[in-house]
Design a protein that fits this description.
The chain is mainly alpha-helical. It has helices spanning 15-50, 55-109, 126-144. It is rod-shaped.
């Protein structure tokens, strides 16, 4: 059962999360294309120049290249989707607390110094929340004293 602090959406309207997910997508796509290009280039280079493969042997290697292509076409999208989902979870753990921090600071800036910022156990930025809560405690002490 979801707790009171549980966020319901993993994809938020946060520039931080969007920027992080774009970076992850770029980190997935660029190495994938580079790896695929290098693998195909290596195979063709070995066939054409290094080994001087006759056409009969090249004819037998062509199905291997086709299987490599199929493996790349089927495997890389699955791996990319899994990595992107993992990135979404990680970005949610970072962007969610930032979003909540912005909301709580907005309430505090309107004069409600009794609020304290609390994060979930797995959220990042807990040390920042503790620091802000200490500042709020000192402000509360000054107002009382």
């Amino acid at each position: 059962m979801p707790g009171p602090n549980r966020r319901k959406r993993y994809l938020m309207k946060s520039r931080l999360q969007n920027r992080y997910l774009r970076l992850i997508l770029l980190a997935i796509v660029l190495p994938t294309f580079l790896f695929s290009f290098c693998l195909c280039y290596l195979v063709f280079y070995l066939m054409a120049e290094q080994l001087g493969i006759p056409e009969s042997i090249a004819y037998n290697i062509t199905p291997v290249l086709a299987k490599i292509g199929v493996i790349l076409l089927l495997g890389l999208p699955v791996i990319s989707i899994l990595l992107l989902l993992w990135g979404l979870v990680i970005s949610h753990r970072i962007a969610g607390p930032v979003y909540r921090l912005e909301q709580e600071l907005d309430k505090i800036s309107k004069g409600d110094f009794s609020l304290r910022i609390r994060f979930r156990k797995k959220d990042e930025l807990a040390s920042i929340a503790q620091g802000i809560n200490k500042v709020l405690d000192k402000i509360g002490e000054r107002q009382r004293g």
